[in-house]
User: Fold this.
Amino acid sequence: MSSHHPTPEFPAHLRALYGRFAFDRSLADDPISVIRPLARDPRRAEIAGIFGATLAIGNTTAIRGAIGDLAARVDGDMARLVDPAHRAARRRALASFQHRWIRGDQLNHLADVLTAYYRRHDSLESAFLAGWETDGFVGGLDALAHVLRGTGPAPPGYPILFPSPFDAPRSPCKRLTLFVRWMVRPGYPDLGAWRRIPTGELKIPLDQHVHWIAYHLGLTHRRTRSWAAVEEVSEALRRLEPIDPVKYDFVLCHTGISGDCPKRRDLAVCGPCSVRPDCLMWRRRGPGN
Ligand code: SF4
Assistant:
């Protein structure tokens, strides 16, 4: 483990990174750009959001392509995925779908699970809240994962699409954590469709870009992504921003995706980086630095 810690000036540096960030440039690259147009219709946004987050594997271009492919198969209306009247047509339409290792039969099963859920509930927020009320965010994510897995027979590989931090602690559970961020945060670029969960309780969706920069800024000492690393990074950000700790997620993630951060010591690119004084690449020189 590293003993690297953020500098005392780190909060100001991170706020400067956030303040100067080109949100509009990166929004077009992000899967939420496909979901945001539905923001005024919370049910549609939630349905598009859970399918979009489930497909959030790989690079952002491929993810947006996969969400677009899925939407095209239901004539652009993702709400049809959970409409019982379209069940047979939906199953045929999704049969040939594939994004990385996620298959159409798995998405069709998710649509069946959600169709049954929405017969009894208005929103997946209720599922999250049921766990959150007893065990906080981890309990909420666990309850959400169990609802999405369903109870009946499922296609091969389906349940592991929805890991819970309780039974898969080595997983950062990035996709469900990202979905919850999209739904809960009212701040740009998120949707704020769920109103009953305080933003201060959110955890960071720890993808590889966020983990790399969080490690190199001293927000976690864990070199591998896991739920423990999620907790460490979230807690470090909560000390900076108690009301809205994951507001920095989009910026940390897209600093890596956009190429603003080369993930190595490169003065031409790192020169204008606001967090350079805190970055392990510049604070310590050694093998690989
Ligand atoms: S100083 Fe360079 S390597 Fe470090 S976070 Fe900034 S851009 Fe990335």
Observations:
- The radius of gyration is 19 Å.
- The chain has two domains: 1-30+200-289, 33-197.
- The beta strands are 98-99, 102-103.
- The mean pLDDT is 94.
